[in-house]
Amino acid sequence: MEIPLAFYQSLRLEDNKSRSQDSSYSSPNIFSFPRFSGYDFSLRRRRWKNPFAKITCSSLVHGLKPKPKLKPEPIREILDQGSKDPVLDDTQISKSAVAICSQIEKLVLCNRIREAFELFEVLEIQGSVPVGIRTYDALVEACIRLKSIRCVKRVHGYMLSNGFKPEQFMMNRILMMHVKCGMIIDARRLFDDMPERNLFSYNSIISGFVNFGNYLEAFQLFKMMWEELSDSETHTFAVMLRASAGLGSIEVGKQLHVCALKLGVVDNTFVSCGLIDMYSKCGDVEDARCVFDDMPEKTTVAWNNIIAGYALHGYSEEALCLLYDMRDSGTSLDQFTLSILIRISTRLAKVDLTKQAHARLIRSGFESEIVANTALVDFYSKWGRVDTARYVFDKLPRKNIISWNALMGGYANHGRGADAVNLFEKMLAARVAPNHVTFLAVLSACAYSGLSERGWEIFLSMSEVHGIKPRAMHYACMIEILGRDGLLDEAIAFIRRAPLKPTVNMWAALLNACRMHGNLELGRVVAEKLYGMEPEKLGNYVVMYNVYNSMGKTAEAAGVLDTLESKGLRMMPACTWVEVGDQTHSFLSGDKCDSYNEAVKRQIYHKVDELMKEISEYGYSVAEEKNLLSDVDVNEEQGVVRYHSEKLAIAYGLVNTPEWNPLQITQNHRICKECHKVVEFISLITGREIVVRDASRFHHFKEGKCSCEGYW
């Protein structure tokens, strides 16, 4: 007899006693390991028959079936029991309710929230079933985790219908459930009806109102708590300091600071961090620094708050020094620290510093963190590296609306309208709801790239499809689209038909179109509108000066200069920056480069002269310079025009950067028409990609062409 191998694996020790009585299992030969008949282990010969051909499953031989696994289907089982026993006595109902309550508690403990509510539905169907406080507490916890208003109403309604009278602990839990699920009005009603309130009750309702931005109501509740309990705790002070920052009221914040000092809780980490945040957001950076310096132990949150406060008010260099101090102190840098560093780098235009922050993000395992990486997308978009921004964006596993808007705005500023529109369509396909910033970015992209038809489709879809009312900035984009196409009369009619009062941006877009198309009469009318709306804004005079200057109307241009002088307005000199290594070098128009030694000065001016000579051989005419002055520096001689700040910065960059890297410069003014033409020729003869960020947008010069296509 041949015994299957699986039979021995199925034997259990507890079965030996019963099986020893069976004669078929009592033979000693049964338990001897069988010899495989199909295989001979002789060294002289081998017969390659399959030795396992006759091995079969013991379960199949004995007609056994696997033991069925128990499936957690309590609802179906209970309903099935109900169908078998249609009439249940009180004892059976009680046992069933106890089983359901126990199962609900276990499911919530295992975070199987939806299954717990399916079981709770059985209790609702049975009605008036006694439920213990532990089960109610589990249901409250389930509502908080699920954040479902419907579930909150079901659970609270069941409590009321069952006549449940909670004690203070349970009342506080019910109050917190309403607050956490966003039912702040119902929570306030519950709070007012509470027979007894403690610190936990007040903290829950105050935190709810602060989180919802109702800071005044939070202060009224805080005053009520102080009058009723004459006590507070550190959490309450931290929340109220956040409310003071939200209101922007430094006086109220100082009163809270005094209260914290009297109660002796000012050294608490949460209170100290709240004070730093409050003083920073209210504009008092010095007091924020005093609180920070007095902290016995400085945490990462404290460092982040004080650095963010300096950066918020424009003290970027000081914020950067604090970041270095934080690093040297041994405090760990988290993703929020790195996001602050990236924003500081954005303001200071420090590309190398941002690259270091990017590398630190990856090393620290934060490459999927949305806040810091969105800041990276914003930086790379604003500083000429939009392809790198797209790479970071694509790596994000989860994207919010800020991430989409940052990249879309980057495409718009770089003149890549088609890419911006494609990204917009991809966002809609991902079912991310656009906001007014999204439409501003995509409409600006259409305006910069001349995508008129697509721009009008998107503009009309704002209200018709997405229910977003267009704002003045969206109308300004459409005016720019009309102006780019030369439809100046239609642009005037569009402004008059707009359901809002024309703004400065709308008139400025039309004035720029008049400048580009040489419509001097309409430009004069629009300029007068701008003068009346913003008589002290320098940019309006600059654009009008360029209108007259480009048309050769020197008398009118001189009149603009006289007006500037009479108003006491002074144009800042044109300045251009170029980053070489970790150093930023600045140049002014007609700069004598006195900050450099004689060899470097000669090298810069020699390079400019060499470039001007080479581009003249490629068809550039020097005669184009005669009536074109810089956008901001007007007191220039002809020789100064030859050495505009853009040309000096480009010459220095070409000499001191590797030729395979794109050259990027930044300006505090719009690039003039003459320099724009020169840079086009320089990109052609040198083969270098040159990126110019002027006061309005990016210009990507490559192989003699610019991304703006001559309209800026």
From TrEMBL:
PPR repeats: 132-166, 198-228, 299-333, 400-434
PROSITE patterns xref list: PPR
Keywords, alphabetical: Repeat, Transit peptide
Keyword flag Oxidoreductase: no
Transit peptide keyword on record: yes
Any one GO biological process: RNA modification
Source superkingdom: Eukaryota
InterPro entries assigned: DYW_dom (IPR032867), E_motif (IPR046848), PPR_At4g14850-like_plant (IPR046960), PPR_rpt (IPR002885), TPR-like_helical_dom_sf (IPR011990)
GO MF annotation terms: RNA binding; zinc ion binding
Residue span(s) of domain DYW: 623-712
Family statement: Belongs to the PPR family. PCMP-H subfamily.
Matching PANTHER family: PENTATRICOPEPTIDE REPEAT SUPERFAMILY PROTEIN, PENTATRICOPEPTIDE REPEAT-CONTAINING PROTEIN
Name the record gives this protein: DYW domain-containing protein
